Amino acid sequence: MKTVSVIIPAHNAAATIAGTLASLRSEAAVIGEVLLVDDASSDDTAAVAEEAASRLALPLRVIASNCRDAGGARNLALAQADCPWIYMIDADDLHLEGGLRSLLSRSDAQPRAEMVVGAFRRRTKGEHHQFKLPYGYTVTGIANASAYLEGQVRSIAVGSALVSRRAIGETRFPTALAYDEDTLFWARLMCRAPLAVITQPVMTYFVSAERSDDRFTIKPAQRFLAWRHALRQLTDCGIAKSTLKTREGLVALKIARVHYARGDFDTAARFLAVAKAAPKVPSDIWRCMRYQLKLAVRRRFSISHALLQSA
């Protein structure tokens, strides 16, 4: 049965979308529709996708969008999806043969599960990294969402999870956030959707470390405050405020590390102070101490260098 709606947000993805669609060809027997949200592309994304889908016999429908936001683009498709199961993948990632059918098989074997998570692999600069296996999840409940936000379980890559449309309901991705919008979406779902995992690899996703880090350097304070506001709305799911504070600290530490690496020590220090004030596990306490020491050393070196230059 064709039971899956595949959702692909795409912005200027003409160079990669045909490969993404080709990677889904082996799952054609279970795919009822592919909803490609062409989000303000200025290239031939839609035309390339339509040609590839016709050649691959995939049931593609293009949705024109001007969201300029991956979360918003996914939301448009979620509102129009017709199949009982939803699978989302980005327009530069690759599905692995048999992954979608394995996710569906686990949902059949564990009928209460409305969210099935598989393994994934990262690809950076052409290098394939070791598969990341899902671990630490319980069957259902807020415990999953809390552990996810606190970094105690494996993160879910978009493209490694299958979710029932019934479980999603009216849940949508937060929009206009520079980062972590998928984490907030998964957390909401995990609060109520019974979950199952498989160890089979489902997809490979491309990571640009530079592009990922850039998200934290543009208007860092403004973007962090917008993200924190969206994060704190998760209290309406019953998630404890202490868990949300822990997440704040994890993200603040990541931002501090990026600014430290790029030589912006003042911004790094400000975000490190936020990270230090948040509840954390011992390993993160050590990371904060280590970066505090490194900042002190680099600042002292910079002052000494400036004095020598002016002498």
Keywords:
single chain; 311 residues; alpha/beta; nine-stranded mixed sheet; 9 strands; 47% helix; globular
Tally of contiguous helical segments: 12
Q: Which shape, going by the Cα principal axes?
A: globular
Please give the largest β-sheet. Answer: 9 strands, mixed
Using the CA coordinates, give the radius of gyration. 21 Å
SSE string, helices as H and strands as E = EHEHEHEEHEEHEHHEHHHHH
Query: What is the residue-mean pLDDT, rounded to a whole number?
Result: 91
C-alpha termini separation: 78 Å
Count of DSSP E strands? 9
Strand content: 15-25%
SS-based class:
alpha/beta
- The unreliable regions are none
Assembly context of the chains? single chain
Helix-residue proportion: 40-55%
